[in-house]
Design a protein that fits this description.
The protein contains no helices and nine strands. It starts with 23 loop residues before the first strand and ends with a strand. Strands 6-3-8-9 form a four-stranded antiparallel β-sheet, with no helix packed on it. Strands 1-2-7 form a three-stranded antiparallel β-sheet, with no helix packed on it. It has 130 residues and is mainly β. It has one domain: Single Sheet (S-adenosyl-L-methionine-dependent methyltransferases).
C-alpha cells in the first residue's frame, strides 16, 4: 500500500437546519468588492422580512413588540421580501464595487413579521469587506 486512502466523496446537496426559537440569518460566500453573496434567512412561514444594515454594531437593545434584540446602530433597510411557505428565503445580493467599502465591516440583521404578533429580530451577521 502506498498510504493513500483510495476513496473519494462527493457532497451533492447540503441542507443546513437550525433549531432556534428566533429567526436565523446566515451568509454564503465571501463579500469582496463587486462579488455576489447569498443570505439565508429563516422564520415564520410566509412572513415578511426586511434585511437591515449598519456600519456600527451595538449590544442588544430590546424593542417593544419585537422578539429578540436590535444589534445595529441606526440601521437602514437594504432589501425586503417574503419568506417561502417553508419559512425560508435565499436572498442573492451584490456587494457594490465601491472602493470606500474596502476594509469596512457591514453588520446585518433580519426583521421578520414586523407589526405582527410573530415579529422578531434574527441574529446579527458581521461581514468584513477586504
Amino acid at each position: 500500500m502506498d498510504g493513500s486512502l483510495g476513496s473519494e466523496a462527493c457532497l451533492d446537496d447540503f441542507v443546513l437546519r437550525t433549531y432556534n426559537a428566533l429567526s436565523t440569518l446566515g451568509l454564503w460566500g465571501e463579500a469582496s468588492l463587486g462579488s455576489k453573496v447569498l443570505f439565508c434567512l429563516d422564520g415564520p412561514e410566509q412572513a415578511t422580512w426586511a434585511l437591515i444594515w449598519s456600519f456600527s454594531k451595538i449590544p442588544g437593545v430590546p424593542v417593544p413588540g419585537i422578539e429578540g434584540e436590535l444589534r445595529l446602530q441606526n440601521p437602514r433597510i437594504l432589501m425586503s421580501g417574503q419568506l417561502a411557505a417553508d419559512g425560508r428565503a435565499e436572498i442573492p445580493a451584490d456587494v457594490p464595487n465601491n472602493p470606500p467599502l474596502s476594509g469596512r465591516t457591514v453588520h446585518l440583521q433580519g426583521v421578520l413579521a414586523y407589526r405582527t404578533p410573530e415579529a422578531a429580530f434574527s441574529n446579527a451577521v458581521s461581514v468584513p469587506i477586504p
